[in-house]
Amino acid sequence: MQALTTLNINANHIGAVGAQYLADVLRNNTTLATLNLSNNEILAVGAQHLAGGLKNNKTLTTLDLRCNQIRDAGAQYLADVLRNNTTLTTLNINTNHIGAVGAQYLADVLRNNNTLTTLDLKWNEVGDGGVQHLADGLLNNTTLTTLDLYGNYIGAVGAQHLVDVLRNNKTLTTLHFFGNHIEYELMVEIDNFIERNNRVTKD
After folding, report:
1. C-alpha closest to that of 52 among 7, 16, 89, 97
2. CB 180 within 8 A of CB 152
3. Element (H or E) spanning 175, and its range?
């Protein structure tokens, strides 16, 4: 029998209780690499259960928790597990009502995490304050290549934080920031840095 490597239970209303059952499985599972739990209303409690299950997991590389209303508390639980996790490369937590506080938890992890390459935060509420935290976290990060901040109430102040960090960060090659309130000149400046990073990567 072939081992299960991908599990997609998108939009099944499993809630926090269902997330707890899955977390129990993740504690000992040694084959699952991709888990899609999007649109399941797991809330912050469900994120807490999953974080517990992932604490010692060594195989999961992709976790999709879109549209689960995990909010800042859920982001904190996930950030806590990412401090020591060495396998998760892709985390999708878009559309989860995550604000500046949740962004700060994630930013603290980015300072030292050497595994995560893709972080999807689109359609959240990180705002300028959250972007400042994320920019601080990316100052010395050399792993994250893709960051999605589409539709996050980011204005000129937040955009300037992105510009400032991109002066030195040569790793980020994909940055989605449309759907915000960023002036054209700042958008061009951000794009120029991203293009530079892509050239550096190819060289």
Report:
1. 16
2. yes
3. strand 174-176
pLDDT per position as a tens digit, 21-76: 999 999 999 999 999 999 999 999 999 999 999 999 999 999 999 999 999 999 99
| Spatial distance between the Cα atoms of 46 and 9, rounded to a whole number of angstroms | 14
User: How many domains does the chain contain in total?
Assistant: 2
Tell whether 116 and 85 lie within a shared domain: no
Alpha helices (runs of H) in 55-155, residue ranges in sequence order? 71-82, 100-110, 127-138
Q: Choose among 93, 69, 66: nearest CA to 82.
A: 93
pTM for this predicted structure: 0.97
Domain containing residue 37: CATH number: 3.80.10.10
Q: Name the residue range of residue 196's domain.
A: 99-203
The domain boundary residue, chosen from 97, 116, 148: 97
